[in-house]
């Protein structure tokens, strides 16, 4: 099953793309705002993203920035009516994998989707497991292994574990974890990070994630 997130606020286009991708054997999901897109992408459960530039709330470039800042390398194809050179350059500089100006033919879209999925398949084999000491996190199965014991993680636990394993021995502040894992305007006073760190400690062992008083958390 190949899951594709379609981020598009024009129903005419999202319906057309969704039906076409479903008919081509993919599993499409449509969201219509930038904030929803970021939230969905933080679950890490999509294989590719079709991202419109002009969106209500935060635009496609801002979605791109936030998703890449979270460490995600999901392939992203930008869709836009603004087929100017500046937008193409901004998108590719911002970490987009491809760029498709509207209006496009469905066949062209599917050809790009296939190409980018094939490329990302190669990337995934390069980096599918993050490791630190006897901890390893499989980015595809989303399971964490401690020594010989392997277990499932919830989406948020996985997001946190991924941040810690990408930055081992570094102090990560609550604000960094909140913006990278939850990804949007959560109340900075929220204790959701502490709650999920506790869940993760419950799974991998309390002493592996150190509390650095007044600063945040560190994977040791
Ligand atoms: Ca739009």
From TrEMBL:
Coiled coil: none annotated. The modification 4-aspartylphosphate is found at residue 52. GO terms for cellular component: cytosol; protein-DNA complex. Pfam families: Response_reg, Trans_reg_C. Residues 3-117 form the Response regulatory domain. Residues 127-220 bind DNA. Residues 127-220 form the OmpR/PhoB-type domain. GO terms for biological process: regulation of DNA-templated transcription. The keyword Transcription regulation applies. One of its GO terms (molecular function) is phosphorelay response regulator activity. PROSITE patterns: OMPR_PHOB, RESPONSE_REGULATORY. InterPro entries: CheY-like_superfamily (IPR011006), OmpR/PhoB-type_DNA-bd (IPR001867), Sig_transdc_resp-reg_receiver (IPR001789), WalR-like (IPR039420), WH-like_DNA-bd_sf (IPR036388). This is DNA-binding response OmpR family regulator. It comes from the Bacteria. CDD domains: REC_OmpR_PmrA-like (cd17624), trans_reg_C (cd00383). Keywords: DNA-binding, Phosphoprotein, Transcription, Transcription regulation, Two-component regulatory system.
């Amino acid at each position: 099953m190949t899951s594709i997130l379609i981020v598009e606020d024009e129903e005419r286009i999202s319906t057309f793309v969704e039906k076409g991708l479903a008919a081509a054997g993919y599993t499409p999901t449509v969201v219509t705002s930038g904030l929803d897109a970021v939230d969905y992408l933080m679950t890490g459960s999509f294989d590719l993203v079709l991202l419109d530039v002009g969106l209500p709330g935060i635009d496609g470039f801002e979605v791109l920035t936030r998703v890449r800042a979270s460490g995600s390398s999901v392939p992203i194809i930008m869709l836009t009516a603004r087929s100017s050179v500046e937008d193409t350059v901004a998108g590719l500089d911002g970490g987009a994998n491809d760029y498709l100006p509207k209006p496009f033919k469905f066949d062209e879209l599917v050809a790009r989707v296939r190409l980018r999925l094939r490329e990302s398949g190669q990337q995934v084999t390069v980096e599918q497991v993050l490791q630190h000491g006897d901890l390893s996190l499989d980015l595809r199965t989303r399971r964490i292994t401690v020594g010989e014991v392997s277990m499932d993680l919830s989406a948020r636990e996985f997001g946190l574990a991924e941040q810690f394993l990408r930055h081992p021995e570094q102090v990560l502040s609550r604000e960094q974890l909140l913006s990278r894992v939850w990804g949007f305007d959560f109340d900075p006073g929220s204790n959701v990070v502490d709650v999920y760190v506790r869940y993760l400690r419950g799974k991998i062992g309390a002493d592996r994630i150190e509390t650095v008083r007044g600063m945040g958390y560190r994977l040791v």
